[in-house]
C-alpha cells in the first residue's frame, strides 16, 4: 500500500519556528523565512516540511523549501512544490524563481530551468534573498506557471 500524500496547509507559528531550525540544520539561511508559508503534515499532524512563497511584482520567489530528514524521498517535497506552484498560479503570478546551492536536480525534475540572475525580473532581484542572503554561487531557476 502506497503511503498517503501529506496534507498541505497554511503554515502556522509552529511551522515557521520549525522551518527556521530545519533550515539552519540543513546549512541554509534561516533568516527571513517567507511571509507566506505552506506546511506538509503526515499522519498524526507530524510536520514533514515547509515551503515559502513571496510575491514580487507579477512573479514569485519560492523560498525556504525544507523537508524533515525522515520524510525525504517520500513525496513530501514534491507535494509542497506542487502546492506552492498552484497557489502562485491562483494568485496570477507568471513565474516562480528560486536560488539553490544543493537542490537544482530536484527542481529540474519538476520543470524548472536554469537562468542567469540577470534574466530575473528586477522586482524579484531586488528582494533580500537575492541581494543579501544567497551567495553568488547559488543556481537561479525559473518555472513559468
Structure description:
The protein has 145 residues and is an alpha+beta fold. It has a single domain (7-144), classed as 3-Layer(aba) Sandwich (Aminopeptidase). Helix content is 30%, strand content 30%. The chain contains five helices and seven strands; from the N terminus they run E-H-E-E-E-H-E-H-E-H-H-E. The chain has helices at 13-25, 76-90, 104-108, 122-125, 128-133, and strands at 7-10, 36-41, 47-56, 59-67, 95-100, 113-114, 139-144. It has a seven-stranded mixed β-sheet, with helices on both faces.
The parts where pLDDT drops under 50 for at least 5 residues are none
The separation of the N and C termini measures 33 Å
Number of strands: 7
Percentage of residues in helical conformation:
25-40%
CATH architecture assignment name: 3-Layer(aba) Sandwich
CATH topology: Aminopeptidase
Key words describing this protein structure:
alpha+beta, seven-stranded mixed sheet, 30% strand, globular, single chain, 145 residues, Aminopeptidase
Amino acid at each position: 500500500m502506497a503511503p498517503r500524500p501529506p496534507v498541505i496547509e497554511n503554515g502556522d507559528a509552529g511551522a515557521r519556528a520549525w522551518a527556521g531550525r530545519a533550515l539552519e540544520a540543513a546549512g541554509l539561511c534561516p533568516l527571513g523565512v517567507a511571509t507566506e508559508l505552506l506546511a506538509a503534515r503526515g499522519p498524526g499532524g507530524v510536520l514533514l516540511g515547509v515551503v515559502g512563497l513571496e510575491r514580487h511584482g507579477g512573479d514569485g520567489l519560492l523560498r525556504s523549501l525544507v523537508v524533515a530528514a525522515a520524510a525525504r524521498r517520500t513525496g513530501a517535497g514534491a507535494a509542497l512544490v506542487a502546492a506552492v506552484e498552484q497557489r502562485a498560479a491562483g494568485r496570477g503570478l507568471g513565474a516562480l524563481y528560486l536560488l539553490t546551492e544543493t537542490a537544482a536536480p530536484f527542481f529540474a525534475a519538476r520543470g524548472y530551468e536554469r537562468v542567469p540572475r540577470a534574466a530575473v525580473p528586477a522586482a524579484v532581484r531586488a528582494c533580500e534573498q537575492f541581494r543579501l542572503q544567497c551567495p553568488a554561487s547559488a543556481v537561479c531557476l525559473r518555472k513559468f506557471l
